[in-house]
Amino acid sequence: MSTQTAEVTGTMARRTAQESGSTPLISYVLPVYNEEEGIRTFHKELAAALDGRREFRYELIYVNDGSSDGSAEILRDLAKSDARVRVVDFARNFGHQIAVTAGVDEADGDAVIIMDTDLQDPPKVSLELVDAWQAGAEIVHARRRTRQDTFFKRTTAHAYYRVLRSCAEVDIPLDTGDFRLLDRRAADELRRFRERSRFVRGIVASMGFRQTEVYFDRDERFAGETKYPLRKMARLATDGVTSFSTVPLRMITRLGFFVLALSLVGIVYAVGMRIIRPEITVSGWTMLMVVVLFLGGTQMLAIGVLGSYIGRIYTEAQGRPLYIVREVVRHDGD
Ligand code: UDP
Ligand code: MG
């Protein structure tokens, strides 16, 4: 499905949902990548939490992000047995941020909730997001009060959000992942952002609207391993910085000035020694190597920073579709 058709059909579906009933519809966007061990339990817990609330209608949009285990079959079963479930089946793994995007594209609700499917985002907390939405907020972030992750993940994430906030041009809320609620208006706006290297939480924060936070304690992953290995995490972190800040580019200029200043000191020293103490020559080889390696290193670093911005320009310029859907599975008779 091309982006264009996704947008057009999405808008039509949303209009009909709005006209059809007075009970608000809440869409859950649920990305799934190799979660066969935990996904049934997740669904059961979410369904149990939702059954307590009769004043809303719900739709659960699972996005199967090219899982290579049995997740796809389990999701199919869920769609068969639960009329609220729809499954967007990707043709391959496109990554969490793209999966979330596809789910939001597919959602028809008056509010859209994005949450992980490993029970780290507790289903009960999503109802608190709904309460905050009803109280008038248009975007509700679920902010982690505590989290049960590895020491490495906790410390790097903690530091990252603070660094990002200090260099980014938008106010990205601290300690929030993608667990949040978007009012229909905010979700509609999010659908218009079609950049490839996505940092959804940053995009949402940059949109404005009335935003609030709900605090929660992030649980441990219910089953399986994290699907965010270091490589994917580093990429997300880079996307976050390059999407919302040009500070790294400006740092290159500063680094240049710093190196220039150092070299001036070196020159003054060498010339000074030559005049005052001509019998001492500045030692050769070691100094030369240090200077050459230092310069080589800083230059390569600078090229790397430039490269990551140019890489972004390149992929955006290609304008390829964000994702490819194999099939959207609905409940029989829908
Ligand atoms: N996920 C995804 N595609 C990916 C990686 C992860 O859809 O390529 C989903 C995953 O199934 C989970 C959510 O994104 O529902 C968050 O992933 P995970 O729990 O592994 O990340 P962590 O909580 O460790 O940061
Ligand atoms: Mg998780």
Please provide a written account of the structure.
- The protein contains eleven helices and eight strands.
- With 334 residues, the chain is an alpha/beta fold.
- The protein is elongated.
- Helix content is 53%, strand content 17%.
- It folds into two domains: 3-245 and 321-329, Spore Coat Polysaccharide Biosynthesis Protein SpsA, Chain A; 247-318.
- Mean pLDDT is 88; it is low at 1-18.
- Strand 2 (57-64), helix 3 and strand 3 form a beta-alpha-beta unit.
- An eight-stranded mixed sheet has the order 7-5-6-4-1-2-3-8, with helices on both faces.
- It has helices at residues 3-20, 39-51, 71-81, 96-106, 123-134, 151-167, 184-191, 200-206, 230-244, 247-276, 285-318, and strands at 25-32, 57-64, 85-90, 111-114, 139-147, 176-183, 211-218, 325-329.
- Bound molecules: uridine-5'-diphosphate and magnesium ion.
- Magnesium ion (MG) binds at residues 116, 118, 120, 221, 226.
Keywords:
334 residues; alpha/beta; Spore Coat Polysaccharide Biosynthesis Protein SpsA, Chain A; 2 domains; eight-stranded mixed β-sheet; 11 helices; 8 strands; 53% helix; disordered N terminus; binds uridine-5'-diphosphate; binds magnesium ion
Q: What name is given to the CATH topology of the largest domain?
A: Spore Coat Polysaccharide Biosynthesis Protein SpsA, Chain A
Helix content: 40-55%
Spell out the helices and strands N to C: HEHEHEHEHEHEHHEHHHE
Mean residue pLDDT? 88
β-strand number: 8
Range of strand content: 15-25%
| Poorly predicted runs of 5 or more residues | 1-18
Number of helices: 11
Structural class per helix/strand content? alpha/beta
The largest beta-sheet arranges its strands as 7-5-6-4-1-2-3-8
| Ligands present | uridine-5'-diphosphate, magnesium ion
Domain count: the total is: 2
Q: In angstroms, what separates the terminal alpha carbons?
A: 20 Å
C-alpha geometry? elongated
What is the name of the CATH architecture of the largest domain?
Alpha-Beta Complex
Assigned CATH class of the largest domain: Alpha Beta
